[in-house]
Amino acid sequence: MVLWGPVLGALLVAIVGYLCLRGLLRQRRPKEPPLDKGPVPWLGHAIAFRKNMFEFLRHMQAKHGDIFTVQLGGQYFTFVMDPLSFGPILKDAQRKLDFVEYAQKLVLKVFGYRSVQGDYRMIHSASTKHLMGEGLEELNKVMLDTLSLVMLGPTGPSLDTHHWREDGLFHFCYNILFKAGYLSLFGYTKDKEQDLLQAEELFLEFRKYDRLFPRFVYSLLGPREWLEVGRLQRLFHKELSVEHNLEKYGVSNWITYMLQFLREQGVSPAMQDKFNFMMLWASQGNTGPTSFWALLFLLKHPEAMRAVREEATRLLGEVRLEAEQSFEFGALHRMPVLDSVMEETLRLRASPTLLRVVNDDQILQMAGGQEYLLRSGDILALFPYLSVHMDPDIHPEPTAFKYDRFLTASGSRKVDFYKAGKKIRHYTMPWGSGVSICPGRFLALNEMKLFILLMVMNFDLELVDPDTPVPPVDPQRWGFGTTQPSHEPQGRLFLEAS
Ligand code: HEM
């Protein structure tokens, strides 16, 4: 027994030694991008990266240029920062870059979901069928009714529409979007009051998970937080269980289609529950925060708010918030001003990271003609927030909110953007791109636009302190989809029925 201590110690030293040695031994080969192994063996640059990914990558880009390889926790990541060179990566005609492998490991860790053959393709075909085209039209109606239900309550106004009311703007938007999105996709029962209560409770738990999420992904949780994550996972698996689904009658075709596929593949009910949790996360983690930023930018930019209201009134007349809505959904496609506001909001606040595993040694040809060797087993990464959204050549004054940035002089949607004089295809990438592009993007946009319309057409909104600056982004959330504010805007929101 006494011998176990030294044996385990020696084993640990051997493992740590091996991992460090692997890092130390790696050398830049001819034609490979600049290699920066970082200050700490094995960890490399992980600490600086996790602290503030945006600042870290900005520093690396200044140091190494448009392509570089960095070590992060024993793994090597090659970042490509020149958007004119994204084409071959996103097309990946040779199929040597793998999105699925990395995603499978991640979802197993954070949602407990073990991927099965073909599920990734199935998610995209389910989404094409039910989150686009005719399927989307059906869902738009459900979404509008559910938004009205959430905002009015089952028996009338839940927002106290006759009095000014204060709330944290972030919480307010996230809460409404989550409840409406959750009920629309995962179904409801005949008892609307109970549904709203359950959705409210679920939202509070979702936010707990959401707060822990970035540090969970980076394996930085303390022991108590690990326990809390375990509790939350179990809770979500239970609340979203397929057994519960049987009691509901409004489960969306999107969810139904995907669960049927899993059943047919022999996936256990317990694993289907985990799949549901993953889909809840994918569908609800970004719409609330994006709607918050959009509404805040509108409140801070009265000229933008005026333009949105004018466009909406011209196209829709009065958009009343009421139970059985009659709403001309076609108008949603004829709102270039609101589209530009949403695109500008996503440009300023959506920061996804696109990751692909390099399957074989291969050459990457950059737009400028240089060729780089990518090493098998490394991860190729794009961070378009820095390399595209914040590039002053593509978007002059990139940190400023300009509601008409995506409008032409004649008021239609602007799609022509340039870098170094060349027209650029990927001038914003909030939804990712290529094989991993967000399959819910059309629903997300409609849902957020409906919410903004209902808010600006039905309520007088203002910040308690109009001089409250737009809060900075919480640096922990760079790279995880839509960012969140480092704190609620100091002032709170007043609402009054207009
Ligand atoms: C503002 C809202 C949203 C944003 C900014 C957003 C963004 C993204 C991004 C960047 C990805 C790709 C990540 C990657 O490359 O790995 C993604 C994936 C995904 N999104 Fe969204 N999303 C939003 C809303 C939604 C909604 C409403 C749904 C569904 C109803 C949805 C469903 C999904 C799914 C299922 C995936 C995973 C697809 C796969 O495995 O390839 N998203 N989203």
Characterization of this structure:
The chain has 498 residues and is an alpha+beta fold. It folds into two domains: 4-114 and 353-382, no CATH class; 119-349 and 434-495, Orthogonal Bundle (Cytochrome p450). It is built from 18 helices and twelve strands. A six-stranded mixed beta sheet has the order 1-2-3-8-5-4. α7 crosses α8, α10 packs across α13 (269-284) and α14 crosses α18. The protein is globular, with a radius of gyration of 24 Å. The chain starts with a helix and ends with a strand. The model has no long low-confidence stretch (mean pLDDT 91). The structure holds protoporphyrin IX containing FE. Protoporphyrin IX containing FE binds next to α6, α13, α14 and α18.
Short description:
The chain has 498 residues and is of the alpha+beta class. Helices cover 50% and strands 9% of the residues.
Order of helices and strands: HEHHEEHEHHHHHHHHHHHHEEEEHEEHEE
Write down the CATH topology of the largest domain.
Cytochrome p450
Shape: globular
Q: Would you identify the CATH H-level superfamily of the largest domain?
A: Cytochrome P450
Helical percent range? Answer: 40-55%
Number of domains: 2
Compute the average pLDDT. 91
Strand ordering within the main sheet? 1-2-3-8-5-4
Q: Give Rg in angstroms.
A: 24 Å
* Sheet with the most strands, sense and barrel status: 6 strands, mixed
Instruction: Name the beta content range.
Output: 5-15%
Identify every distinct bound molecule in the structure, by name, code or SMILES. protoporphyrin IX containing FE
Which residue ranges are poorly predicted, with pLDDT under 50 across at least 5 consecutive positions? none
